Amino acid sequence: MWVLISRRLRLWVIATIAVPVIGWALGTAGRQLEHRRGQSRASRLLLSGSERLRRHRRR
Predict the structure, then answer these.
(1) Which pTM was predicted?
(2) Distance CA 24, CA 13 (A)
């Protein structure tokens, strides 16, 4: 089925599904890390990545 869909449409579908899922996963990992070990550079990085994807998705 993927062969029948144009390349641009395939990329759009993948990005439409992947970006929110990656943003959710980064946010969840950042919150869990912060909950377990307190605020750290890694947790801030994960949360900021999630926030950037969330802001990008709203545009």
Answers:
(1) 0.73
(2) 17
